[in-house]
Amino acid sequence: MIVSTTLTASNADIIGDALASVLQQVDRCIVIDTGANDDTVDVARRVAGDKLLLREFPWKNDFAAARNFALEAAAEAGATWAVTLDTDERLLFDRDFDLARVLARTPAQVCMVVDDVGSYSKERIVRLPAKVRWEGPTHECLMGRTAAGTLSLRGVRFHELPKDPAATRRKFERDVAILKRYTKQHAKQARWYYYLGASHKHLGEFAAAIDAFRTCAELRGWEEEGAWACYGAAECCCSLLRWPDAVQFCAAGLAIRPATAELAWLAGFAAYKAQRYDDAVAWSNVAIANGLFRGRGAQFERIGFRHPPGLYEGPFDVLHWAYKASGNEQAAAEALRDFERAKRARESAQST
Predict the structure, then answer these.
(1) What pTM did the predictor assign?
(2) What's the CA gap between 292 and 289, in Å, rounded?
(3) Which residue, of 68, 105, 179, 289, has the fewest CB within 10 Å?
(4) Checking DSSP bridges between strand 89-93 and strand 81-84, what pairing results, if any?
(5) What is the domain class of 165-351 according to CATH?
(6) How far from the centroid of its chain's Cα atoms is residue 289's Cα?
(7) Which tens digits make up the pLDDT trace of 19-55?
(8) Which helix (H) or strand (E) holds 144?
(9) Where does residue 298 rank: exposed (0-12), middle (13-18), buried (19+ CB within 10 A)?
(10) Which fold has domain 2-160?
């Protein structure tokens, strides 16, 4: 049996569409009420009908605790798989996709689902009884997951509703406060510094973000995350017009995980802005070699972090402007043609 699990507070305006997006693929919909004071539960009941199972969990400012409760509730209901679905998410299934048939054939313990623009994946489907547990009060992750026991699921994506600017700022301010406390208690765990950096970055607090990202990379946790922490630090340096520092962070990230083509692309961009045009060309060619257009990027597994334009057309854009600034109009024109081809290739890949 497959169940969806959805944590909710007062989300009457969005929970219905979330449940509707998964209703035909699951046997039951478990809704975890963490303190709704509107008609959220009534909306869920109208949409899910007989498939609805309602449970209550008093909110404790701890997403991992709530998600672990949801896994336990799903197991108690007799489920063999739990599909995590937040109220601001919609699952998008390919035509004729049958989730039950796909899960019946996989030996995996956890299935990753990519977002609808291909920029990152989330752990969204867990085999029950769970051999993994959520950890962390925010930006929680599944601990105990192994590469061998993880499947990147094809045929389904998720879409996350955008938040308005005020709600977005409140979220990141909340996350900064939580993660500042949590990193003091877990000072050797790289993950929480990454998300502390990301929260500072979204608030425009670039210096604080750079410090947190640097700590994440130096702690040498998960290589993909450490490399992307360097990418985040480089982006912040670009926002501060610190172009040489951005290049240095990109180089440090490539030392952690050389397959991260976006780091080479961003280094090329920063070198161009610093008017180091030969370096911009060299970095861009590194990005192309490990990218997804005329490169060998497909041979490198990517679980989470990615910036699709940097894997496709971004390096050719840098080449175009670097060659133009150098007075090589012929090479600039060819790079511009390659930029258009690579962009079409990315758009085609993301539409399939």
Answers:
(1) 0.83
(2) 8
(3) 105
(4) unpaired
(5) mainly alpha
(6) 24
(7) 999 999 999 999 999 999 999 999 999 999 999 999 9
(8) none
(9) exposed
(10) Spore Coat Polysaccharide Biosynthesis Protein SpsA; Chain A (3.90.550)
